[in-house]
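Structure (tokenized):
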């Protein structure tokens, strides 16, 4: 099951953002984040970033790190990021897969197996 982090951010300049984003790639990779793409919002000066997440704990540590805070300033990110509306963690696979795959059978614990 893949986990994803999707972030929408307002930026002052997309070229400035991309330069800084590219520079921070080793830090993201060390946190278990794999870049899947940086996209331009159609009618707004926003960027949408999609990353695959290896370990949500490490990714969240990076998200709150000083390295990223400094990078956000350098990249020209406008305002704070609201984790309720701008950042989304998908941590349990696709809805479609959950609806179509049969539930895994629960293995009995040792005490139940003897009965």
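Design, position by position:
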């Amino acid at each position: 099951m893949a986990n994803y982090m999707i972030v929408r951010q307002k930026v002052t300049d997309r070229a400035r953002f991309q330069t800084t984003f590219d520079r921070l790639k080793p830090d993201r990779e060390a946190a278990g984040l794999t870049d899947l793409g940086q996209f331009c919002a159609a009618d707004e000066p926003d960027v949408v970033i999609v990353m695959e997440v290896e370990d949500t704990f490490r990714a969240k540590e990076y998200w709150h790190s000083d390295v990223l805070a400094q990078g956000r300033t350098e990249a020209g990110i406008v305002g704070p990021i609201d984790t309720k509306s701008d950042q989304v963690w998908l941590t349990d696979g696709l809805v479609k897969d959950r609806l179509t795959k049969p539930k895994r059978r629960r293995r009995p614990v040792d005490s139940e197996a003897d009965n």
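Reviewer-requested clarification: The helical segments are 14-23, 25-30, 56-63, 66-75, 95-100, 110-113. Residues 54 and 110 are 32 Å apart (CA to CA).
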